[in-house]
Amino acid sequence: MPHLEVTDEWTIPATELKFRYARSSGPGGQNVNKVATKAELRFEYRRSTALTSAQKSRLQRRYPGHVTLTGEFVVASDGTRSRKQNEHDALTRLAAMLRSIQHAPKPRVATKVTLAQKRRRVEQKRYKGAQKRLRSRSDLD
């Protein structure tokens, strides 16, 4: 199995990736009961030299459902009848997940409400209140 190229500068060595196969629940008719086409890609991300410790923690926080107790990151694919296509799909999905955690998210910078926004909000409240007063019954009725 070749290395997984996440980006042009970032690759995961093939020694850190393992495939396991099982019978698929996807399409395949009677063949689904005989052939193990479901591909489970297992990546031991905690031992990986290709990820920084910050990336490892981001991966675990962002995708907790894919992390096992033994420290493996599991991506399964059973969408097609072909084992090869399911392998390719699992590798593609793992690469996309790794690209999403490559960089730390930018921290949110709190901004103040401007004076003009405050004035517009108060004016809108006055307008709505006036509309409601006009809808109510007057004392003359």
Detailed description of the structure:
The chain has a domain at 4-100: Double Stranded RNA Binding Domain. The strands form two sheets. A three-stranded antiparallel sheet has the order 3-4-5, covered by helices on one side. A two-stranded antiparallel ribbon has the order 1-2. It has helices at residues 53-62, 83-100, 115-135; strands spanning 4-5, 11-12, 17-22, 38-43, 73-77. Helix content is 35%, strand content 15%. By secondary structure, it is an alpha+beta fold. The chain is built from three helices and five strands; from the N terminus they run ββββαβαα.
Keywords:
single chain; alpha+beta; 3-stranded antiparallel β-sheet; 5 strands
Radius of gyration: 27 Å
Largest beta sheet: what is the strand line-up?
3-4-5
Largest sheet: 3 strands, antiparallel
Summing up helix and strand content along with how strands pair, one would put the structural category as alpha+beta
Question: SSE order, as H and E?
Answer: EEEEHEHH
What is the typical, i.e. mean, pLDDT? 87
Strand percentage lies at 5-15%
Low-confidence stretches: none
For the terminal residues, how far apart are their CA atoms? 86 Å
- Range of helix content: 25-40%
The count of DSSP E runs of length 2 or more, i.e. the number of strands, is 5
CATH-assigned fold name of the domain at 4-100: Double Stranded RNA Binding Domain
Secondary structure elements and pairings:
Layout: E1 4-5, E2 11-12, E3 17-22, E4 38-43, H1 53-62, E5 73-77, H2 83-100, H3 115-135
